[in-house]
User: Fold these one by one.
Assistant:
Number 1:
Amino acid sequence: MKRLENKVAFVTGGSRGMGAAISKRLASEGAIVVLTYSKSPEKAVAVAAEINASGGHALAVQADSADAQAVTDAVNKTVAEFGKVDIVVNNAGIYIGAAFEDHTLDDYEQIMGINVRAVYAASLAASKHMPVGGRIITIGSNMGDNALSAQTTLYTMSKSALSGFTRGLSRDLGPKGITVNLVQPGPINTDMNPSDTELADFLRSRMALAEYGTVEDVAGLVAFLASEEGKFITGTALTIDGGLNA
Ligand SMILES: NC(=O)c1ccc[n+]([C@@H]2O[C@H](COP(=O)([O-])OP(=O)(O)OC[C@H]3O[C@@H](n4cnc5c(N)ncnc54)[C@H](OP(=O)(O)O)[C@@H]3O)[C@@H](O)[C@H]2O)c1
């Protein structure tokens, strides 16, 4: 029997990058996966098709994380279709970098809407249906603990909010047998943070391991937390950053 057999997983931002790798990994371990996307329908459908072609079960659903109601509806659709939701992976996120005085009020709304409010919305909707053994796993960032450089204020603010959310929610849902954790990746080679830029050279120079991680590295940690083996880990942040914050 696979580790996540009979589990239903909901992954936000599953069309590309880490969310795609997490969706594939959870499905390969036996979970039914509902993955959301906003702007990349072809990529999302391709991820779901790849999972289905390899004997798994996945569904791509459009739900813009900027719209809390759309996220709530997508969780409710998952429950209506598959009867429950055991695993939520709050992965969708954006980065908006600029000199602080060049930011707009709208930048705040956008980044907090997608990186924080959507996490709250998905977790809230799922908590009403999540059985014992449930898992809420949010993808934060090593920058939640370490701003690293200028022009990261909004992103750092949004990612550090997730650690308070995770700690509080672990105490609300612990009595129901549900764990809540934050995974904080460092530099991972994706569209958001390609490994062949000047920024990448700077980041490597600050890392203990001096190399970028892969989306599969993060997916492996998420799968561990989602599995029975992760059952005693809750209310905490696990940083997976090649020693950038060391
Ligand atoms: N890459 C890194 O080095 C790194 C480091 C630390 C933390 N993180 C965090 O890890 C998570 C994944 O990042 P990534 O590097 O995989 O990013 P990515 O390559 O840019 O992919 C982002 C994913 O999120 C989805 N997404 C973005 N905005 C969305 C929205 N409004 N509604 C729904 N989905 C949305 C995208 O869907 P569409 O294709 O439909 O736009 C895509 O599937 C993010 O939370 C990010 O902050 C990344």
Note: Residues 8-188+216-240 form a domain with the Rossmann fold fold (CATH 3.40.50.720).
Number 2:
Amino acid sequence: MITIATILLLITILFLYLKNQNNNKVEYVYINEKTKKYHLEECPYAKNLKGISLKDAVKNGYTPCKICNHNQL
Ligand SMILES: [Zn+2]
């Protein structure tokens, strides 16, 4: 027999699962060590640059590129 408590538990698990999925989405950016800017993958300036996580880029003092990143983050 399925009780309301079971249903609530399932909903909670589903909720946590979805939340976790969002958190696991790693945002990768491409850093230019000379200009201290980071670029999105589709940016023409991102070619041949080192990819790191957005979190690390910000932590290391990188700022968003004005061409590819002006509306985001
Ligand atoms: Zn860019």
Note: The chain has a mean pLDDT of 87.
Number 3:
Amino acid sequence: MRPDTFFDHAPAGTLRLLQITDPHIFSSTHDRLLGVDTRDSLRQVIERVNIEKQPLDATLLTGDIVHDEGNEGYTAVRDILEGLPSPVYCLPGNHDERTKMALLDHGNSHTDKQVLLGDWQIILLDSVLENEEAGFLADDELNFLRQALEAHPDRHALICMHHHPVPIGSAWMDSIRLRNGDELLALLDRYPRARGVIWGHIHQEYESRRNGLHLLGSPSTCIQFEPGNDDFAIDPQPPGFRWLALLPDGEIRTTVLRVANVAATLELGSGGY
Ligand SMILES: [Fe+2]
């Protein structure tokens, strides 16, 4: 018999979501990120997800999908994502090339900016600032967000992007956060149906609340950064993912899980990536 899992005690009508982030896939099968085979690491995460045999409504892939130039990384990642039991909605990170994101509109993978599911809407924003590691939500993105919230006042909203809108207590990482996070949060304050913001980029677990809004960052499917460190430092924790239960009354229940082992080849003393 299957053991109890995270979603088992959620009420009827709950949406079951998976967040995966920052897989940093390379075009070549030979390249490694600080010693890690990122394709293999993503496959391990998907295997771990599938152990629980959850009937998922959606997967959210929150950026840094491909680490280098070339189309091959995008076609490789979408093949790997076919292993997930739900549609995968993808948004770009600072390592991605916007023009290549369309390659992810294929099979199980999608680049929709808005998904309506049950009592919820999921809004996927592009926070990438060209040639910068930091992020910014341009007027077009903020207007899209505002219009989506106005158009569906009866739906709870989960907002997804790559960059973190609040400091996480790590100086090097906070210097490359969303530059107009305060503007985003001021906008969301006006829409109480906005229930949560999730992001990638920080390669670590983060959770806080602000005026009833869940603020959630998730570990990467490959390498992790050490929480609380003001300088770049690799954390030896294994790759992970986040479950999100979106309840019909607007509550969000969430937890992070990790694969059993970190890659033995991880270069822990590295000064950057
Ligand atoms: Fe990343």
Note: The mean pLDDT is 95.
